[in-house]
Design a protein that fits this description.
The protein is built from four helices and four strands, in the order βαβαβαβα. The chain is α/β, with parallel strands linked by helices.
């Protein structure tokens, strides 16, 4: 409910892009950026999500200077910690 159409969102630690794909199913107009330090996982995310997403290979520290103003950040590891899964 906090996201609006065309919001700029960065998924930090996006892995293979599974969560990002679900997010885009619900809001395909999001300007989504994925930050992922694992090159093999990022390759899977690129296949899953295609060209509409911006991909940054590396850590959030390296990615922050490359990002324009964002409306939201999603931290996957935080979600895993909350649900212990």
């Amino acid at each position: 409910p906090n996201l609006k159409e065309h919001d700029a969102v960065t998924d930090v630690g996006a892995g293979t892009g599974m969560f990002s794909s679900l997010l885009l199913e619900h809001m395909p107009s999001l300007q989504l950026t994925i930050v992922e330090p694992s090159t093999p996982m990022l390759a899977i995310a690129k296949k899953r999500l295609g060209d509409s997403v911006k991909y940054l290979d590396g850590t959030i520290d390296a990615a922050l200077p490359l990002l324009a103003k964002q409306d939201a950040f999603i931290f996957q590891r935080s979600l895993y910690a909350i649900y212990q899964s």
